[in-house]
User: Fold these one by one.
Assistant:
Number 1:
Amino acid sequence: MLRINNMTTGYGMADVLHGFDMELNKGEIIAVVGANGAGKSTLMRAISGLLPLKSGSIKFNGKDISKVSAHTRVDQGLVQVPEGRQVFGPLSVVENLTLGFFSKRKQGKTQLQKRLEYAYHLFPKLAERKGQKAGSLSGGEQQMLVIARALMSDPSLLLLDEPSLGLSPLITEQIFEVLVELNKNGLSILLVEQNAFETLSISDRGYLIENGNMVLNGDSKQLLNNPKVTEVYLGNE
Ligand code: ATP
């Protein structure tokens, strides 16, 4: 579904990712783990189209999307939940969700209603707070809202950048449970995290990045037992 081939990208003269390869098959949850500054967010920006490639390619459903704009990628079903809970604070929960439906607005009100109901089913907290200003939600609720907003356009591949950042273990667990449910319903997921153990526990396969290089990849269960992964985890404690 997603294939990254020999990709180099970065900022200005500085390359962050060097000759990076990665693959995600339809229906998988893929984990990308690595320490602070390893290049995880850079990878996400390149996939979602916010950062141009210097070389290499990204293919989505067999088509080269390396030069396709970010909003066209969203239309094609590739949607990123940005790092750091970017909600529209003065707007209500339902207004935030409705904005996530913008690219699908031609589908009309009935479809909008269906997507809203699905969001509320996944995150009942959001249903309780649908009229509340997004800026007044707790950190965990804001994270739920940005995920739910991304789902409003009915993506086929969801990219998540550190959804657990700053959240309690309990809220993180709730959010990860929803990701597993979404995956069972057919959504493919690319999950970038410093939180290596939890992430590898819910994913099928994983990649470990160090200083912009992919140093390990494989079955998540095997990676969980790899000392290099433990090192990254302990380095973040
Ligand atoms: P974190 O979890 O801290 O966000 P990360 O693995 O996501 O870490 P990146 O944010 O991708 O890492 O950063 C990788 C490298 O790119 C770092 O050295 C960082 O300083 C650099 N970098 C990130 N964003 C920019 C930018 N806008 N301009 C220049 N350099 C950047």
Number 2:
Amino acid sequence: SCKSLGGNRVQVYNDTIRQSSLELLRLEQDLRKAIDNNEIQVHFQPKLDLNTGKITAAEALARWHHADEGFISPGIFIPLAERTGLIETLGSNVLEQSCRQAASWYHQGIQIQVAVNIAAQQLDSGSLVKQVDELLNKYELPAKMLELELTESTLMEDAEAAIVEMHSLRNRGVTLAIDDFGTGYSSLSYLQRFPLDILKIDRSFLMTDQGNRSQGTLTRAIIALGHGLNMRVVAEGVEDPQQLTELKQLGCDFAQGFVISRPVPAEEFTQLLDKQY
Ligand code: C2E
Ligand code: MG
Ligand code: MG
Ligand code: MG
């Protein structure tokens, strides 16, 4: 009958919920183990200087290869880490690997500025500046070789506190970027007050084809805004050569995306560099 069908539906629905929260719980336990066992790896995606056509920087991106499930997207495990408090350990792990790699390149005479994504909880833990100091010291890495990427929403969560932390970092010579610009809640008056060096245009603003004029208008406007506030502008998610040409014409400073390279392990990144010189 209809009634029993309804009942079954509810049952199925509840099972689905139960199963998915059980899966999440399992995933959380596995993530905790993976962090403890240093199984979170870092890949590097090049950023191309559009003026010189050279790779001068890289974004560090966390990678988790789960023994049974295979590759798990950061789009899944980063939010999970943020919800469960694991992000601080994961984040400092990624920061350490990134500084170690940046230093290794630097001491081989390869100047690649490495950008690390920083979550809101890392920024307001109060220990980020201390950790950065320790890592720069430990690996003898000049501060200018380190960049930190902060999303709009991270910055707006507690803007006044963020400004204080950012000044400490910037006084040391660390480069600061606003990530995924245009997707969050952006207060233009705050944008002016944040001590930022780099603006990363979110890939949703990139022109997908020549005919898409409104996207072009937005990209142009965001580049002008960034330059007007003395920032250099990076376009992220650049997938085709046409976009590269257009971004260069618009005066965008850097490009990052699959058209240049996917994020790759450090050794592969070094090979990319060998090829270009
Ligand atoms: P994000 O910081 O904006 O990083 C850029 C994302 O765009 C990366 O996704 C990268 O692989 C992807 N991407 C780059 N070029 C292209 C392209 O041409 N086309 C397309 N479709 N995608 C492109 P990924 O590695 O999956 O990371 C997703 C997000 O997870 C990152 O976005 C960042 O918010 C977060 N994340 C990754 N690693 C970390 C980390 O170590 N710490 C923190 N807090 N967040 C991280
Ligand atoms: Mg980023
Ligand atoms: Mg981004
Ligand atoms: Mg993003």
